[in-house]
Amino acid sequence: MCTTIIVDYPQGSVMARTLDFEVPLEYNMIYIPRGFHYADDLYHKPMRSKFKMMGMCFRNLYPIKDGVNEHGLCGCTNMFIANNLFSNHPIEGKINTNSLDFMNFALGNYKTVEELLDDLDNIHLANKDVDGNSVICPDFHFMFVDRTGDSIILEYKDHKLVPCGDNPKVMTNSPKYSSHVKRYEKSIGDLSKFNQIKDLTGAYDPVSRFIRAKYILSTHKKSNNVNEAYSSAFSILEPLKITEGFFKNDSHDYYTFTRYISAFDTQTASMAVRTHSNTQTYLIDFDDIPDENKIFSYYFENKLEFKRINKG
């Protein structure tokens, strides 16, 4: 249950997302330097990053869930539950990886959406390695945006990654993107006649969140610079947050709620993060990394921070 949006401004774009999760979760920012061996492919060969990248990860493990590289390409993973998405074997001559490591591969190797799409036929995702052993391969779909403003969602057809949408700006979860667009158009209809106060859905299923996010994004005040775009992204996603205790997940005997909101800017190649219980916004760019040649992690404060005014 996650929601991703893209907020454009004249010089660039900010991609932002809510990360909703159903079990206790440790997460942090991670920086991966050029040339770093972050995973092995399905033939057990090392995968290394050509470009510096940073983003959010779980338990300080290398797979990035949402991030940005040094050239401003931003990407995000969201759950996309469906049957038979992946091949069960690698293909010789292809770039063979799994969905867990694909975001690192994309951010580590491409500068633009166009470059990624040009190479898409050479990329093969599978849930088993060359020896037939199962690998971790979550049901993810992916969204990217670059410095030119080009954006794309990648889903699946016949075990292949396929592009979806014409510069899409919103991604949630299943069903497929085209179905979300049709339901949005059916729900909203004529914008000039739509009564958003009374008729805009407030539900939290993927379809309802897509409709709400797309409508709020389309009607929100336009951003003139990166600071305004960051501010707009957090404001738009606030109504999409799931509060702690609102939704109990019986299968895990725990609550599904929004763990963090992260945002990434194409022009400054920076990221901003708010945790679920702390409204402080943390801003990080590549100049903040202590040593660009070494892996680096940062953990965010989860307790609410107050700033006291001068009473003197």
From TrEMBL:
Keyword set includes Hydrolase: yes
Choloylglycine hydrolase/NAAA C-terminal domain boundaries: 2-286
Keywords of this entry: Hydrolase
Pfam families named among the record's database cross-references: CBAH
UniProt entry tagged with the keyword Hydrolase: yes
Any one GO MF annotation of this record: hydrolase activity
Domain of life: Bacteria
Family stated for the protein in its record: Belongs to the peptidase C59 family.
Name the record gives this protein: Choloylglycine hydrolase
Origin species: Finegoldia magna (strain ATCC 29328 / DSM 20472 / WAL 2508) (Peptostreptococcus magnus)
